[in-house]
Amino acid sequence: GSAAEDQVQIITVLDNIAPTFTAPADITLYKDANCTVNDTPTGDAGDVTNETDNCSTGLIATYSDAVVQNCEGTYTITRTWSLVDNCGNAADDQVQIITVLDIIVPTFTRPADITIYTDENCSYDASVAETGDVTDESDNCSTDLKATFSDEIVDGECQGTKIITRTWSLVDNCGNTAEDQVQTITVLDNIAPV
């Protein structure tokens, strides 16, 4: 008898198992004195180190960032991590939230205490042009800061004299508040009667 004709069976072996990984934990990072922070995976934000797959080797998770600015120098990063094996099987994306904050207070120096004098009408000028202004406002992240003040005025020892307690304040653009500083302005009358 004659042999039956050969028949071919195609057996396709596929990998349909997605890889696995764990995104780094959510983290809060803080700006330094130079308003810098290393928010990269190779820096302080953390990296995926446990990429595994049933077949593919050497897998490295990748990420994309969406950044929302908060106040000057601070922001929130929504970092979406992804991992695909060499056969196109994708793990579910995982999200890491990185919060970058500035908690460093600004600095400034109050003007020196000063004595000013009343004029012939018993008036005086206690404006910052006469009594001094803050010129050294500084902060690690915020720019264009301007110290403000409030005055408390009490009568001095004799009629026409005053003691002005000027409290200077400075807040950066993220709400970090410097310690208040007090300038004392003494108003004296040094004009003799006629």
- Which blocks of ≥5 consecutive residues have pLDDT under 50? none
Strand line-up across the major sheet: 1-4-3-2
Largest sheet: 4 strands, mixed
> What oligomeric arrangement do these chains adopt?
single chain
Structural class: mainly beta
What is the overall pLDDT average? 96
Tally of DSSP β-strands: 8
Shape, principal axes of CA atoms = rod-shaped
3D architecture notes:
This protein is 2% helix and 29% strand. It has 194 residues and is mainly beta. The strands form 2 sheets. A 4-stranded mixed β-sheet has the order 1-4-3-2, with no helix packed on it. It has a 4-stranded mixed β-sheet with strand order 5-8-7-6, with no helix packed on it.
Describe the structure in brief:
With 194 residues, this protein is mainly β.
Question: What are the key terms here?
Answer:
single chain; 194 residues; mainly beta; 4-stranded mixed beta sheet; 1 helix; 29% strand
List the helices and strands and how they pair.
Layout lengths: L26 E4 L31 E8 L5 E8 L11 E8 L12 E4 L10 H4 L16 E8 L6 E8 L11 E8 L6
Parallel strand pairs: 1-4, 5-8
Antiparallel strand pairs: 2-3, 3-4, 6-7, 7-8
